[in-house]
Amino acid sequence: MLNFIKKNFLLVLILLLGGIPASLNYSGFCIAEGRYLSDEEKIEKVINSNLIPYSEYIFDVNNLKKSNPIERYKNVQEFLEKNPNCCFMDIKQAADAGPPSFWSRIFNTYTNVIVANYHEWFIDKNSNPNPKPKQRLFFIDNCGNRASW
After folding, report:
1. For the whole model, what pTM was predicted?
2. Alpha carbon distance 106, 21 (integer Å)
3. Cα–Cα distance measured from residue 8 to residue 1, given in angstroms and rounded to the nearest whole number
4. Which of 76, 92, 143, 148 sits at 20 to 30 Å (Cα–Cα) from 105?
5. How far is CA 139 from CA 15, 34, 123, 131, 144, in A?
6. Chain centroid to CA 70: how far?
7. 112-131 tens-digit pLDDT
């Protein structure tokens, strides 16, 4: 065994250095933050980065700039107060994409799905808030970021 390691030192070194991050990724470890994130932390990250930001202006079909009729939430807390039990992790919801493959887990490109059921608030012609139910799926990595594949 020692002879094999001496003869193939470079190969053994590459396998060790590549195997450690790959196994951490596979286990769900967020390397960027140096820890495992809870489901709640991942959900909060998705809400904060995908459901709260919005454009103040939009362009209509004639490419004219006008105010965005969507009234968004101020922060994650307000979003969760107005949409209790809105979000959960459910890999079974990824019917089109299927469950994450061995390789996507190793390379941390797609590891789970967050389902968000919430209300988008539109301001109607009379300036009244008008909620519309919406469901979105977010394919995420171990750190709660949108999947990149």
Report:
1. 0.75
2. 8
3. 11
4. 76
5. 29, 21, 29, 25, 9
6. 22
7. 889 999 988 776 677 777 78
